Amino acid sequence: MKIDPNSSADLSAQIAQAIKDAIIIGELIVDQRLPSEAELADHFQVSRPTVREALKRLAAQSLIRTQRGATGGAFVNRLSFEDAHAQQVTTSTLLLSMNAVSFETACEARYALERACAPLSAKRRSADQLATMRAEIFRQTQPNLSDEAFCASDVAFHRALVDGAGNPVLSYQLAGAVEAMQPLMNMITFTARDRASIVALHSQIADAIDQGAGTDAAQGLTKLETETLRMAQKVFETRASKP
Amino acid sequence: MKIDPNSSADLSAQIAQAIKDAIIIGELIVDQRLPSEAELADHFQVSRPTVREALKRLAAQSLIRTQRGATGGAFVNRLSFEDAHAQQVTTSTLLLSMNAVSFETACEARYALERACAPLSAKRRSADQLATMRAEIFRQTQPNLSDEAFCASDVAFHRALVDGAGNPVLSYQLAGAVEAMQPLMNMITFTARDRASIVALHSQIADAIDQGAGTDAAQGLTKLETETLRMAQKVFETRASKP
DNA sequence: GACTTTTAAATGTCAGACAAATAAAAAATG
DNA sequence: CATTTTTTATTTGTCTGACATTTAAAAGTC
User: Which residues of A touch B26 (CB under 8 A)?
Assistant: First the structure.
């Protein structure tokens, strides 16, 4: 682990990168303890605050965790699917909100990704995951449900669909995309009729998953995409005409 | 922006979260300048090093950028697709290397995701993207190509396929998944026969994309997935029998 | 007016100190 | 001897204060 003394970059950024590289190439392995801050400061010939800034950068990416006390220190963290998922959601959410990504683009991406796991989910979903989908559909029929709760239930439904594929890599990638769209979805107020239409399609999809019919499930998702776009367009048009 | 004085968490983590929240809810907008470190220290009633640790955490996530000098400071950064993509690759790579994700699982996820954009790519790909695919296929036929170069070309081919969908959200998500698999793919040494088989399938896929036949392209990807798994299995079996 | 110099403000870095947490070692206690 | 309590050493968390470096604007100079 070395840094370039001639680089113009911040020392803390260089040190963070050096440690990160060491983790990536396997020089530092999971749960291994890094040298203490004082030792690192000595090694890199910098002060302790600089080392600390570097370590905080790594901690922000869940690459290390720190513990106080006698046997404490910084340890290489096993990046969990949960951590990765959380990062993915934050990144995607900010990306969508900061880059004027159109509703159409985000929607297309979301449903394309979901269709990708429909066939897998139809084959592998557990009874529990199917039950979750049914339960969320039922929740969505309740008339007193707020818009936020309806959207949250929608996310839970799709999350169960994605998890049904039984592939944690897919789950982590897709759940991020689906959840990141929630703020955009929350901008739309669904009428009772819209909700009924969505629930009907959800039922079709759940039935297809139930029967192991992956292609049908994918077709259901395509219909849902079309419906969602139609509803969104209606809302945006209404807003544009009433400024 | 406030922090909880009774929380047991690190002050720098709390402050970073507070600022992050402010960015997410839009209280701080892109390119807006944050208060200076001294002002933040005063606001949160902590010392400057603590504030700095918080800011470095945010910088590590590309949420802010800092500038030195008279009119310098920390500014809310517009998260670019490029930044998001880089983060995605790092996260996915570490996730795969640290969690003993099987080759099968990663492979399945990758091809499922790629199949999702095959129909879009068949409709929308530019002439340039198609030319890139053809060029990479040609490169892959060169006999003197090293294993690393072959894999890199493979990534470039699939990257062009994904970009062909013309959906930046999809590109950012999928390119991450594809690139993260490269270290796993690099573990496999392809025989000349394997390469020929891969190139033939790549040609099939490119032809399908050329003709706007999304379904055919997806089928080609499925064949490629099967082939890749078969080759990987062969390699792993050989290794297991010769320890 | 154009150029140079100065100045002020901000981040980057350093040094040293103390607080707080924690586990191991040592001491006290029954 | 076994158990409990106390001490101690180590490590991270935080603070104070200082200086270096960069940068743009202000002031000065020709």
Answer: 97
Measured distance CA(A31)–CA(B95) in Å, rounded: 14
Instruction: Give B 40-99 residues with CB within 8 A of chain A.
Output: 49, 52-54, 56-61, 63, 78-81, 84, 87-88, 90-99
Nearest to A84 among B24, B78, B95 (CB): B95
Spans of all domains in chain B: 11-76, 81-241
Q: Which residues of chain A have pLDDT under 50?
A: none
Q: How far is the CA of A48 from the C1' of C8 (A)?
A: 29
CATH 1.20.120.530 fits A81-241, yes or no: yes
CA-to-C1' distance for A48 and C18, Å? 15
CATH second-level architecture of B11-76? Answer: Orthogonal Bundle (1.10)
- What pLDDT digit, counting tens, does each position of B16-60 carry? 999 999 999 999 999 999 999 999 999 999 999 999 999 999 999
Q: Cβ separation of B120 and A108 shorter than 8 Å?
A: yes
Please give the pLDDT value at position A7. Answer: 85
Q: Tell me how far apart the alpha carbons of residues A240 and A235 are, in angstroms, rounded to a whole number.
A: 9
Query: In this structure, is the dihedral angle defined by the CA atoms of residues A120, A182, B63 and B18, taken in order, positive or negative?
Result: negative
Residue among A14, A25, A56 with most chain B CBs within 10 A, to mutate: A56
Contacts of A32 (CB under 8 A, 6+ apart): A75, A76
